[in-house]
Amino acid sequence: MKLNIIIFAVYGIILGLVTIPLSKKLTLSRTDDPGMAAPLNKTSVKILAVVLGLIAAAGIVFTAKSYSLMIRDLLLLVPIFSISFVDALVRKIPNPLLLTMLGIDIVSLIYECIKLDDSDEVLDLIFKPILGVALGMVVCIIPSLLKIPMGAGDVKYSGVIGFTVYAFGYFQAMILMAVLVALFWVYLKISKKGDVKTQIPMGPFLSIGTIITMCFSLTQIVGEVSLF
Q1: Which residue of 3, 139, 141, 211 is most buried, as measured by CB atoms within 10 A?
Q2: Rounded Cα gap, residues 139 and 99, in angstroms
Q3: CA contacts within 13 A on the Cβ side of 142
């Protein structure tokens, strides 16, 4: 328990501190307006990044089923956080961050497969992320039906999320995203800053839904579902 507390505290702080300069660099490389990255210079944003980093790291550390998965998920938080900041500022999702997520996932998948002795279990483990990424790319039609616009970057991010949390987890993350977006639209309406027609970046909301799913997957609560 003490080790877990140290891990989440140290990593959470590092995550918050590292994410800001990384996001700033990626933001500036995707816009001609340097002012777009200005919010990342604010002390309040830096503090928020550290606080969110601590919360996310704590969720991962204290819910992980194994240390190997905990390491994978903690590493994934770096690109997930950066994607959220960059998308929120310039509405673009950097491909290098998506490739980083896939790289982490693939290394983790190979490691988990090596630990298994049963070939059927290995095939099942390999099939899960493949099915997840396929659904993540195809089922993007759901947000459009809910009148939630998704760009090409969102679609690719959605596919990577499917690879990370598998098919069942992907649906959970998407549902959580839809709920969060709806709540944000309510906020915009109440504050008179916008309405349901206001276009907002999907990356941050999908990231939150994904992190929650990584920590509290329904498959862990109701039991493992075959192929999902």
Answers
A1: 211
A2: 21
A3: 17
In the numeric block, the tokens 């290394």 are attached to: 107
Q: Are 82 and 19 in contact (CB under 8 A)?
A: yes
CA distance 144 to 77: 27
Tokens, residue 68: 């190997």
Digitized pLDDT (tens) for each residue of the chain, 228 residues in all: 788 999 999 999 999 999 999 999 999 999 989 999 999 999 999 999 999 999 999 999 999 989 999 999 999 999 999 999 999 999 999 999 999 999 999 999 999 999 988 888 899 899 999 999 988 888 776 656 666 566 778 889 999 999 999 999 999 998 999 899 999 988 888 887 877 667 788 899 999 999 999 999 876 555 544 444
Query: Rounded to whole angstroms, how far apart are CA atoms 60 and 148?
Result: 28
> What is the residue-wise DSSP string for the chain?
-HHHHHHHHHHHHHHHHHHHHHHHHHHHTT-S-GGGGGGGGSHHHHHHHHHHHHHHHHHHHTT-SSHHHHHHHHHHHHHHHHHHHHHHHHS---HHHHHHHHHHHHHHHHHHHHH---HHHHHHHHHHHHHHHHHHHHTTHHHHHTT----HHHHHHHHHHHHHHHHHHHHHHHHHHHHHHHHHHHHHHHTTS--TTS---SHHHHHHHHHHHHHS-HHHHH-PPTT-
- How far is the C-alpha of 139 from the C-alpha of 170, rounded, in Å? 10
Query: Is the Cβ–Cβ distance between 80 and 146 less than 8 Å?
Result: no
